[in-house]
């Protein structure tokens, strides 16, 4: 019973922590440490000697970009995803289309309904092809860059300098396999929704999306901490009650719209806040040690695909031994802690 209470507590803490970013978002830049101003009394010979060092340091910093501000990037995300992308969908679906329908009704009277059955899908297809789809793809690329800027700036302000994976080959393999596993897990979430059991498929798919959204948000922080992929997946599976609660609000918001464009717009608009929440969160550990191995299937599939691709390499020349693939070590799951 105590274990069950702690699991429920971890789930509720996850839900609460997911909303913390809406409060903390405005404190980041305000709480950023400011350099103290030197008083006239402190203008000593020592300060003068340091002036030369500071001038050289400023010269190096001048060639680098200024550190991205958290609130500035989030405002840019709001403008792109809300004011540009989201507002265009609202105007087209709730202002332009109803207005055109009324105009057709004035001119065609009884035949307006039959004509509208052909006009509406045609206009919708043209709008989606010429505006929504290109803007959706462009916004996803820009959002990926901005999300990384937000996560890095937030981590530097609160946690310090990021500790990335030391090996370049491991880092590249980690990123590529992480994206591949997330794609497979998203496919798995859609497949379980097709189970012929009333309500069960939707619930299982919702659980998958909760875990995936939590992984999305925390992965920036864990990556800056130097955690490799197997450690990130193992930690989120072992402490699933907290992460399921953390990913629940975003999963509900993005699963409700029927349009993939509307769902993607809402995700891109709100996700920066959840990055802030994850950066500040203190996950509640699961007391019973039961590990929900939702990622085991996709990890096994990815390992099998990678091993198949590696074994299909061209034959080695005599005298050369094949080198082990860096992808294998990054994708292989370790034993439970």
From TrEMBL:
Superkingdom of origin organism: Eukaryota
Organism for this UniProt entry: Homarus americanus
Annotated GO CC locations: endoplasmic reticulum; membrane
Stretches with biased composition (Basic and acidic residues): 55-64
Pfam families noted in UniProt: EI24
Single GO biological process annotation from the record: macroautophagy
Ranges annotated as spanning the membrane: 74-97, 125-147, 168-187, 193-218, 239-255
Compositional bias of kind Pro residues: 315-325
Localisation per UniProt entry: Membrane
Family assignment from sequence similarity: Belongs to the EI24 family.
Annotated stretches, region: Disordered: 34-64, 312-337
Protein name, UniProt field: Etoposide-induced protein 2.4-like
